[in-house]
Write a structure and sequence with these properties.
The chain is an alpha+beta fold and 240 residues long. Among the domains are: 94-127 and 206-236, Alpha-Beta Plaits, CATH 3.30.70; 128-204, Alpha-Beta Plaits (2-Layer Sandwich). The protein is built from six helices and six strands. A hairpin with a 7-residue loop joins strand 3 and strand 4 (171-177). It is rod-shaped and about 185 Å long. It comes from Dyella humi.
């Protein structure tokens, strides 16, 4: 009898424990599924649709008509940037010259000083024609050159001399001329007399002076009004 009573009590206790596990344990675990203060996870399907999404999208999207003024404003800005400013000064580097002497260069610098923001002077070497020389071909030695001179005298040809030193040693000179026409006439006379006269241009290296400058305003720069030498010219050059 006592065993039956214990058996019934055990069954009743098992039923009570099972009921507590089935009913009370789920609520207890549900209340502590996450740490305090951390929101519970929810499925997207459980969330209500946001009521302000449509209204917010409508407020953010720009109206179609607003794009035209924006494009117009951008094109106007581009045109304004592309169009030159009529008040902008024009700069260009140029060279004036050649000046024959340093004094001529100094006078030009003083005359242009107020219209130029930067200047520099430079010197170059150039080859210039200094006239024409009529002569016979050089002889192999001084004796042969003297013999040619005597032959010229025998033909009544005057105004000659034998070069005895320098680069043209043992050459019979027949005259120096500035005008090439006069030099050709003299050469033809000697050739007609039976001699092989030659005509050679005489040159020498001389310095010439240039003035490089940057005008304050190239469009308004009139250097001819201040430098009246017709031998002076101008051309563009690299800036410095």
């Amino acid at each position: 009898m006592v065993l039956r009573l214990l058996f019934v009590l055990l069954i009743a206790l098992n039923i009570a424990v099972g009921a507590w596990l089935l009913l009370g344990q789920n609520d207890t675990h549900a209340g502590f599924a996450t740490d305090p203060g951390v929101p519970k996870l929810r499925l997207l399907s459980e969330l209500p649709p946001p009521a302000t999404t449509t209204a917010h999208a409508a407020s953010v999207a720009p109206p179609p008509a607003a794009s035209a003024p924006a494009l117009t404003s951008a094109s106007q800005n581009a045109q304004a940037a592309a169009s030159p400013n009529t008040n902008t000064l024009s700069y260009a580097c140029m060279a004036l010259g050649p000046f024959a002497t340093q004094e001529d260069l100094r006078i030009a610098r003083n005359a242009l000083g107020t219209q130029v923001q930067r200047m520099r002077a430079r010197q170059e070497q150039t080859t210039q024609a200094r006239g024409w020389w009529v002569h016979l071909p050089p002889s192999p030695n001084h004796t042969a050159a003297l013999a040619q001179a005597r032959q010229l005298g025998a033909r009544n040809i005057q105004d000659y001399f034998v070069v005895s030193a320098g680069d043209n040693q043992n050459t019979v000179s027949l005259g120096l001329f500035k005008d090439p026409a006069n030099a050709r006439k003299r050469r033809d006379e000697i050739v007609a007399a039976g001699f092989q006269a030659q005509m050679t241009e005489r040159t020498e290296t001389v310095p010439e002076y240039w003035l490089d400058l940057i005008p304050t305003d190239s469009k308004q720069f009139d250097w001819r009004s201040r430098i009246h030498d017709p031998a002076i010219g101008s051309h563009s050059t690299g800036c410095f």
